[in-house]
Design brief:
This protein is of the alpha+beta class. The chain has helices at 12-23, 28-37, 43-52, 88-100, 126-144, 146-154, 189-209, 257-273, 275-295, 300-311, 351-359, 365-388, 393-407, 412-421, 429-442, and strands at 64-72, 75-82, 106-121, 158-166, 174-182, 221-228, 234-243, 321-326, 329-337. The strands form two sheets. Strands 3, 4, 5, 6, 7, 8 and 9 form a seven-stranded antiparallel sheet that branches. A two-stranded antiparallel sheet has the order 1-2. A hairpin with a 7-residue loop joins β4 (158-166) and β5. The structure holds (R)-mevalonate (MEV).
């Protein structure tokens, strides 16, 4: 494979030419034209997109859609979603509509604490370190980051606490400073990491200069200072509930409302117990969550990592959602950690992230947490509802058929004929190809031929 030094120093045209020459077989001019075709017509905007990452050659398009009719705590939202998987927006919209006719979604933010650590090694009598931390160091650390926390304090947040933790049972000589923060409407990663790095320097200096320590005790070895994306105390709960009889009947599956609710609850119980099902079940929740996270310029990797860690908090990986049948009521709940921001990062830089927030009524972080949790719940409801009634392929395959037809460049009339033909037939790549070949050869649908 061809290696290169100084790739980042090349301009866009040079980068594309190098890539085409060494890794692609098409004509380099065609490749350059293709990459250019995805650039934004507005050069100033293109600069914004280029600036978001490094070595940018062009833009990568994903669909931007909206799911209407999300009634959350009595207010109706249209929710922007960015996702590559067909049927996710349709499923969210269907879930939103279903529950809008049954009292809507309810959501409540339980806590908003973020956390970060200075991980360090220290060789000495831990009692002495704890004594120093409790009598002097903690206050010194708090004062030391004042210049960083002041602004956040004015916005209602800041540093909440610092703890010293002995982790020598995990790794020899290992201690942590664990700091907790409230970052209000910011996701807060930069703020937290700046505070932690300041703590690390201050800790090292203060221990070195303290006369109660001698020899190796004076040397704190900082391993790393970093926020944790695990935020089990930044939690939102969303739920829907209605009388079982209000769920209606599911005729295609020959289930009445009570049979449906029992089957639905069993599906959730399975996702509580079986890791294979739990993973797919939670993936369905993140279909909705990630799509809004992306549309609002938030960090979907952080949200996913945290959600999956949280799903394992009881010692085994399990469903994030839960279902109860109580006193004739069906109650479906999602409790999920969501550390999101509505200021800072991409949220105002990316023009469509900004527009998404406007569509949502420019929410603060807490309101956005509630919206996202409800979309995750709606997505999960629609997926499990389909699974326990008609099966998932019915809805999926409709979208899949569109994609396959598009792949084969089907005309409007061919699309119409194909949808009629595959109404009760199995959709597959080869079946659609065969259908189109037959149709194109005969100029008649196979139905008629
Ligand atoms: C597909 O992207 C998501 C589902 O598999 C979720 C689920 O099984 O609950 C439909």
């Amino acid at each position: 494979m061809q290696k290169i030094k100084g790739f980042s120093k090349l301009n866009r045209t040079e980068k594309i030419a190098w890539l085409a020459k060494h890794f692609l077989t098409s004509n380099p001019l065609d490749i350059a034209r293709e990459f250019s075709s995805y650039m934004h017509a507005n050069a100033e905007l293109q600069k914004v997109f280029d600036g978001i990452s490094e070595n940018t050659l062009t833009n990568f398009y994903l669909p931007y859609g909206v799911a209407p009719n999300f009634v959350i705590n009595g207010r109706t939202y249209v929710v922007p979603m960015v996702i590559e998987e067909s049927s996710v927006v349709a499923a969210a919209s269907a879930g939103a509509k279903f529950w809008s006719e049954r009292g809507g979604f309810h959501a409540e933010v339980i806590s908003t604490t973020k956390v970060g650590h200075v991980h360090f090694l220290w060789r000495g009598d831990s009692d002495k370190l704890f004594d120093f931390f409790n009598t002097e160091l903690k206050q010194i650390l708090i004062a030391d980051v004042k210049h960083l926390t002041e602004n956040m304090e004015n916005r209602g947040g800041g540093l909440k606490d610092i703890e010293l933790i002995d982790c020598t049972h995990l790794e020899p000589e290992y201690f942590q400073l664990k700091a907790t923060f409230e970052t209000v409407d910011a996701m807060g990663a930069n703020f937290i990491n700046s505070c932690l790095e300041e703590f690390a320097g201050c800790l090292t200096e203060e221990v070195k200069e303290n006369k109660n320590f001698s020899g190796a005790e004076r040397d704190v070895e900082v391993v790393m200072s970093i926020l944790s994306n695990y935020t089990p105390d930044c939690i939102v709960k969303a739920w829907v509930e209605c009388k079982i009889s209000d769920l209606g009947n599911f005729e295609e599956a020959e289930l009445n409302s009570s049979q449906f609710s029992r089957k639905f609850k069993t599906a959730i119980n399975i996702a509580k117990q079986d890791v294979y099902r739990a993973t797919t079940h939670n993936k369905g929740i993140f279909n909705g969550v990630d799509a809004v996270i992306l549309a609002t310029g938030n960090d979907f990797r952080a949200i996913e990592a945290c959600g999956h860690a949280y799903a394992s908090r009881n010692g085994k990986y399990e469903s994030l959602s839960d279902c109860k049948i109580e006193n004739g009521k069906f109650i479906f709940t999602l409790e999920i950690p969501l550390s999101v921001g509505t200021v800072g990062g991409l949220t105002k830089l990316h023009p469509l992230a900004k527009r998404s927030l406007e569509i949502l009524g420019n929410p603060g972080a807490k309101e956005l947490m509630k919206i996202i949790a409800c979309v995750g719940l709606a997505q999960n409801f629609s997926a499990v509802k389909a699974l326990v009634t008609s099966g998932i392929q019915k809805g999926h395959m409709k979208m899949h058929l569109s994609n396959i037809l598009r792949h084969f460049g089907a005309s409007d009339i061919e699309i119409e004929k194909a949808f009629a033909y595959f109404h009760d037939r199995t959709v597959s790549f080869s079946n659609v190809r065969e259908f189109l070949n037959t149709y194109r050869n005969n100029n008649l649908s196979p139905e008629k031929s």
